[in-house]
């Protein structure tokens, strides 16, 4: 998932970023609510991890601004405040979940998977489209019932395409979900991962729509 972490404690932000990146997420970090609001206007994120105790503008105020502008991005509140009143306030303002510090990364990852399931319309951690099947918790992938070993980036590309359920996904959308602002992105980086997937899943598994994007072929089979 492409995530925006809003956390003013820089060592903690770095630790969360590293931990979630190791679990396969793409994490951009800002240290203020004002910066977060600017970035969500410029980029698309699957979820925002939002601290409450931020300088100048609180996480609650940031969340309220997001929802007032009709921004639908999923938001998980991250905070040391554990009172029922604070939890209710966050949820009433439009948060999708609420995680109390300190927390385990595995718990946060599980809550992110729950958001991914809800937004994609799946009931569990197994996402499926045609002959393609993946478990977003264990990172296992099957094609025509045979297990396939993928790198983290290959898994992420296939995850995005399966979520699209046969719709065309643009090259720009794939790049935006695969890389942070700081990554030096090669002009053909997405094409390279698409090529790797075709070698592992069959040359007809992904259709290229020139100048538009990529689409999973529901009727494809391994070759």
TrEMBL record:
- Chief location category: cytoplasm
Ranges for domain OmpR/PhoB-type: 124-218
Q: Which SUPFAM superfamilies match?
A: CheY-like (SSF52172)
Q: Which residues bind DNA?
A: 124-218
Q: Give yes or no: UniProt keyword Membrane.
A: no
Query: Transmembrane stretches, by residue range?
Result: none
| Domain Response regulatory per the UniProt entry, residue ranges | 2-116
Listed GO MF terms: phosphorelay response regulator activity; transcription cis-regulatory region binding
Where on the tree of life does the source sit, at the highest rank? Bacteria
Residues with PTM 4-aspartylphosphate: 51
**Localization of this protein:** Cytoplasm
**Which Pfam families does its entry note?**
Response_reg (PF00072), Trans_reg_C (PF00486)
GO BP annotations listed: regulation of DNA-templated transcription
Q: Which PROSITE patterns match?
A: OMPR_PHOB, RESPONSE_REGULATORY
**Example of a GO cellular component annotation carried by this entry:** cytosol
Cite the entry's keywords alphabetically.
Cytoplasm, DNA-binding, Phosphoprotein, Transcription, Transcription regulation, Two-component regulatory system
Protein name (Swiss-Prot/TrEMBL): DNA-binding response regulator
Natural source organism:
Formosimonas limnophila
């Amino acid at each position: 998932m492409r995530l925006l972490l809003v956390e003013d404690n820089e060592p903690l932000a770095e630790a969360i970023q590293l931990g979630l990146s190791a679990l396969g997420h793409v994490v951009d970090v800002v240290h203020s609510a004002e910066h977060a609001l600017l970035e969500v206007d410029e980029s698309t994120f699957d979820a925002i991890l939002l601290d409450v105790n931020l300088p100048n503008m609180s996480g609650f105020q940031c969340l309220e601004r997001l929802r007032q502008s009709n921004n639908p991005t999923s938001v998980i509140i991250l905070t040391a405040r554990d009172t029922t009143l604070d939890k209710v306030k966050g949820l009433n303002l439009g948060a999708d979940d609420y995680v109390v510090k300190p927390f385990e990364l595995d718990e946060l990852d599980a809550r992110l998977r729950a958001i991914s399931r809800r937004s994609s319309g799946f009931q569990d951690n197994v996402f499926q489209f045609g002959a393609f099947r993946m478990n977003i918790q264990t990172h296992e992938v099957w094609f025509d019932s045979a297990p396939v070993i993928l790198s983290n980036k290959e898994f992420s590309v296939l995850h995005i395409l399966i979520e699209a359920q046969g719709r065309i996904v643009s090259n720009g959308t794939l790049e935006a979900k695969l890389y942070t602002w700081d990554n030096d992105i090669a002009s053909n980086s997405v094409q390279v991962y698409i090529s790797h997937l075709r070698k592992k899943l069959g040359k007809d598994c992904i259709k290229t729509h020139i100048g538009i994007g990529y689409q999973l072929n529901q009727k494809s089979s391994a070759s």
